[in-house]
Amino acid sequence: MENRKNIRNETLDDLQKDIKKTEQQIDVEEHRMNLARQKMKKAERKARNHRLIVTGAELERVLPEIKSLTEAELKVLLDMVSHIPEVRDQSLWMAEYSASRRLEKGSEREQ
């Protein structure tokens, strides 16, 4: 009978050690996941900043006179341009076309 108690106690002790070890592994993996999320957010911010800079540079290249405009004046100008039907239609078409091309390239890479 005493032998059974020792086996149970050992088994219980082993299980408690396993639980503690598993909890530590969970903590480590959660930390790794948080680091990966932070890295992904940083990469997304960097990509967005790059896109904004390139877009602004292209806008200045095409319309160099906008360099002298204030932010408010630029917003008014872009708002006016966006309401021109031909410009609006073309920008929507180009955005859809670009998105479909990215999808096609993505599916080609998976194959």
Index terms:
single chain, mainly alpha, 3 helices, elongated
Outline the structure in words.
The chain has 111 residues and is mainly α. It folds into 2 domains: 1-68; 70-111. The protein is 89% helix and 0% strand. The protein has 3 helices and no strands. The longest helix has 61 residues, at 2-62. The protein is elongated. The protein starts with a helix and ends with a helix.
Strand content: under 5%
- Oligomerization status of the protein chains: single chain
Number of helical regions: 3
Count of structural domains: 2
Mean pLDDT: 91
Q: How many beta-strand runs?
A: 0
Radius of gyration: 29 Å
Please tell me what the overall shape is. Answer: elongated
Helix content: over 70%
Quickly give the structural class. mainly alpha
For the biggest sheet, the summary is:
none
**Unreliable stretches, pLDDT < 50, 5 or more residues?**
none
Instruction: Compute the separation of the termini in Å.
Output: 64 Å
Can you give me a brief rundown of this structure?
This protein has 111 residues and is mainly α.
Helix-strand layout with pairing:
Layout: H1 2-62, H2 71-82, H3 85-110
